[in-house]
Amino acid sequence: MSTYKMVCPHCSSRMRIRTSEGRHIFLRVAYLQCTTEACGWSVRAEFEMTHELSPSGMPNPDVHLPGVNQELRQAALTTEKITAESARA
Ligand SMILES: [Zn+2]
Known about the structure:
Residues 8-53 form the Zinc finger Ogr/Delta-type domain. By secondary structure, the chain is an alpha+beta fold.
């Protein structure tokens, strides 16, 4: 588990979330800006919940997302492994 970090594709600095707004229960739109003043790149981004990896213990009957297939489950496991390894580095 870690906090979410976005990296500027231009200068590799961290991006700061200036504002964000919920568009839907599964979708949030955010406006990001690079933290390096000399770069200053800013961008619109979307964060979307797309697939359920494991069910909620407190399910809301209005929430329906597709489950993951074997390929997506494998990708999630691989990503968790990479994140854990980079956190140790
Ligand atoms: Zn930058």
